[in-house]
Amino acid sequence: MAGAVTALQAATDAARPAKHAGARPAWLPEFIPAFDGLRGIAILAVVLYHCHPRLEGTFLEKIAMWGWTGVSLFFVLSGFLITGIILDDGATPRFYANFYARRFLRIWPVYWLLLFLHYCFFPFVFSGYKWMFHIMAGAPWLPLIFFVQNLMPITLPGAIGPTWSLAIEQQFYLFWAPLARRVPRRWLIVAGLAMLATSPLIRRFYGDHLTPVHTLTHLDGLAVGALIAIGLRVLDWPRQAWKWVARAGLGLGVCGIALALHVGSPYTDTLLAAGFGGMLLAALLGQDAVRPTLYVRALTRRPLLFVGKISYGLYVIHILVFSILGGYVDKPLDHHGIAGNLAIVAIRIAVAIAAAALMWKYFERPVLRMKRYFKFA
């Protein structure tokens, strides 16, 4: 998610005018507020998905069951923004040092805060130091430290579960940055297409041999985002042509929904990623200082922008918040039927957003200010 869930801040801080003539179309804005709105939609979908057992018997249940797709939307955004940074700033001095330092500041501090809270702080507060040491001794530290927990058949506690997507993002940064920086851009389109084809084929023919959250089975979104970023810088197409690409992507996304409703398929995630790519392009093309589209105006409503701004922290800690609230909120309301369940969901979401907002103000934002020491020249 991250983070997915998490590259907008890096893009807005690091983005610069194109370093090479024709590398970036003149109409492509450097700052895209609507992307925060997309991130807000993605994180709200994920949070609602993790509340879906409490929504049984309500109209929200069917909506919440689709919330898992929010991670794919995060991946599309990340693939687009990170690839854009690499292509626009890859020729600058000390690129790798600056790029990975900025990625470290964006992902690692909040990630380690989660591990500290889950394995140290709350076990000590609620059960004492002996239980804290017991919990710490049983943690899979090596996979967590090296961000490979998604590649191994290990069982993670619920609060640590969302970190599988952060592992995929870290692996993507590690391998994609050298490739995207060195490979000629037109050949990079071939690399992106190969990455896009990899996941559905592996899910189809080899998926049973890998973990459900293995990187090779979740490259669709990253590939779609990367291909859009590359295409905008390589293909000399007018905006109208890209509008048709956006419509085609949205159409494929609808096909993915229809396919998922009727039968399971290894190609569903690929079609949905294409749909999210269409949403991303529509947000890009709808940006207009004078008269943005209705879609962009909806994405840039202040509450949604705020949730998008804190989305990384909210993604990382929301299940931990749910777990802590369980003994104080869930049990007293368990016997009040649907009304009690809806109250539990409302309290969970409100407290998780409040916690993420506090973490953003007092932890994330101060850490991110250190990015000024790692600017691209």
Question: What do you see in this structure?
Answer:
By secondary structure, this protein is mainly alpha-helical. The protein has one domain. Helices cover about 70% and strands about 0% of the residues. The protein contains 16 helices and no strands. The protein has helices spanning about 10-15, 35-50, 60-65, 70-90, 95-125, 130-135, 140-145, 165-180, 185-205, 220-235, 240-260, 270-285, 295-300, 300-310, 310-335, 335-370. Helix 11 (about 240-260) packs antiparallel against helix 12. The longest helix has about 35 residues, at about 95-125. The protein is globular, with a radius of gyration of 21 Å.
SSE blueprint and pairings:
Layout: H1 8-14, H2 33-49, H3 60-64, H4 69-89, H5 95-127, H6 129-137, H7 141-145, H8 163-182, H9 185-205, H10 220-234, H11 239-262, H12 268-285, H13 294-299, H14 302-309, H15 311-333, H16 337-368
List the main descriptive attributes of the protein structure presented here.
single chain; 377 residues; mainly alpha; 16 helices; disordered N terminus
Explain briefly what this protein structure is.
The protein is 70% helix and 0% strand. The chain has 377 residues and is an all-alpha fold.
Strand content: under 5%
Mean of pLDDT = 91
Largest sheet: none
- Helix and strand run: HHHHHHHHHHHHHHHH
> Helical amount among residues, as a percent range?
over 70%
- Secondary structure class reads mainly alpha
Number of H- or I-type helical stretches: 16
Number of strands: 0
Rg from alpha-carbon coordinates: 21 Å
In angstroms, what separates the terminal alpha carbons?
A: 28 Å
Low-confidence stretches: 2-22
- Number of discrete domains: 1
Principal-axis shape equals globular
